[in-house]
């Protein structure tokens, strides 16, 4: 039975089926240990079975959370403990197009204009994150304060950590970037149609 589970695990291409196969193998090993009186097998599989069950449960919860994140906007509350506050005055340039980027921002108070995109950002909106995905790390647009502005910012190092550790955040970023690309595409098409 254990050999069959090992072979099945080798063919598993996704994590959740692999966990379930491991759980079956653990159950078989535990049954063998109990039947043969092998204390080491009882301990090994008695510990591994609940660990694999817990990991499978975590993965299922993660899948549900990612699906929910795909259908809703990101709640940034969890990000606040990792972010740093920064204030800007009305008319102040936060960054210019082409600047080397080192951080992403979230508006918490006030309004920020992205002139190249014709966009006005309000509390809860994230900006400056797209440069993380460019080949040279340069800002793709400028950001200027229309009013006095309060922001939270995270460095790109922190940003990358959250991107890789929090799938909901990663999915939110992908959706945000796709929305911006769609908006820019529509704007470009309307300019072409006007010509």
From TrEMBL:
CDD domains, alphabetized: CAP_ED
Pfam family, any one: cNMP_binding
SUPFAM superfamilies referenced in this protein's UniProt entry, alphabetically: cAMP-binding domain-like
GO molecular function: DNA-binding transcription factor activity
GO cellular component, one term: cytosol
Source organism superkingdom: Bacteria
Domain Cyclic nucleotide-binding: 86-161
Gene3D superfamilies, per database record: Jelly Rolls
InterPro entries reported in the protein's UniProt record: cNMP-bd_dom, cNMP-bd_dom_sf, Env_Response_Regulators, RmlC-like_jellyroll
Name this protein carries in UniProt: Crp/Fnr family transcriptional regulator
């Amino acid at each position: 039975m254990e050999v069959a589970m090992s072979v099945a695990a080798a063919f598993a291409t996704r994590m959740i089926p692999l966990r379930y196969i491991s759980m079956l193998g653990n159950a078989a090993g535990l049954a063998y240990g109990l039947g043969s009186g092998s204390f080491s097998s009882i301990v090994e599989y008695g510990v591994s079975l609940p660990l694999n069950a817990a990991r499978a449960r975590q993965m299922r919860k993660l899948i549900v959370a990612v699906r929910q994140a795909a259908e809703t906007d990101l709640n940034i509350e969890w990000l606040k403990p990792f972010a740093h506050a920064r204030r800007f005055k009305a008319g102040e340039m936060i960054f210019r197009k082409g600047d080397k980027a080192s951080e992403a921002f979230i508006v918490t108070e006030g309004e920020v204009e992205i002139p190249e995109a014709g966009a006005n950002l309000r509390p809860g909106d994230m900006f400056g994150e797209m440069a993380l995905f460019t080949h040279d790390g340069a800002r793709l647009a400028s950001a200027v304060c229309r009013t006095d502005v309060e922001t939270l910012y995270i460095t790109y190092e922190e940003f990358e950590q959250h991107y890789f550790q929090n799938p909901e955040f990663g999915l939110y970023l992908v959706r945000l970037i796709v929305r911006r690309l769609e908006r820019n595409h529509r704007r470009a098409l309307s300019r072409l149609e006007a010509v």
